[in-house]
Specification:
heterodimer; A: mainly beta; four-stranded antiparallel beta sheet; globular; B: mainly beta; seven-stranded mixed beta sheet; 11 strands
Chain lengths: 112, 117
């Protein structure tokens, strides 16, 4: 069965620090990969997605993610975080079955 | 553009009672999803509709959960009877028409927080 692992459950950073959140999935076929974000008091919303092509994907608010097929990974990065990036981040995977599998999420707290 | 609407936002019931949640997707969105998100976990897909047909309900506990999407627009999710472990946030999401379920971005509603006592 497909699964998604997010190993960092809680991350605390100071403003201007660099961020990398890990996401690994288990599925051998073609996948589509997503990062969703939920800011405090708001709905889940799409941060970025990968379907095909350039494995380095850029999203909103300066976030990017790199798809490394050989490592089954889709890590999220941001060179310099801001206090407003405090949120919960979810990695998700879909395949040809149309079913979205979400990771358990990473709570990021950025200290001003 | 109006977002995905859900009601109620909060519900507290006792175990063995029944409860229903309502979702109105973004206009024109063909695919609708119901998720269960237990505290500390990611959203788990319960059921996926394409228009008014079920695409996937493999993780829906059918002995107590049911869902319908009449006329391919809004949808209701029902739990009867509720158990303590059903306490969770129930999220509804939709995807625009013209995109396959694997490619379309999901737009989420605010969720319904259910507490079962």
């Amino acid at each position: 069965a497909q699964s998604v692992s997010q190993h960092n459950h809680h991350v605390i950073l100071s403003e201007a620090a660099s961020l990398e959140l890990g996401c690994n999935y288990s599925y051998g076929g073609t996948v589509n990969l997503f990062w969703y974000v939920q800011y405090p008091g708001q709905h889940l919303q799409l941060l970025l997605k990968y379907f095909s092509g350039d494995p380095l994907v850029k999203g909103i608010k300066g976030f990017e993610a790199e798809f490394i097929k050989s490592k089954f990974s889709f890590n999220l990065r941001k060179p310099s975080v801001q206090w407003s990036d405090t949120a919960e981040y979810f990695c998700a995977v879909t395949s040809g079955t149309y079913k979205y599998i979400f990771g358990t999420g990473t709570r990021l707290k950025v200290l001003a | 553009e109006a977002g995905v609407a859900q009601s109620p936002r909060y519900k507290i019931i006792e175990k063995r009672q029944s409860v229903a949640f309502w979702c109105n997707p973004i206009s024109g969105h063909a695919t609708l999803y119901w998720y269960q998100q237990i505290l500390g976990q990611g959203p788990k897909l319960l059921i996926q509709f394409q228009n008014n047909g079920v695409v996937d309900d493999s993780q829906l506990p059918k002995d107590r959960f049911s869902a319908e999407r009449l006329k391919g627009v809004d949808s209701t999710l029902k739990i009867q009877p509720a158990k303590l472990e059903d306490s969770a946030v129930y999220l509804c999401a939709s995807t625009p028409a013209g995109t396959s379920g694997t490619l379309g971005t999901q737009y989420f509603g605010p969720g319904t927080r259910l507490t079962v006592l």
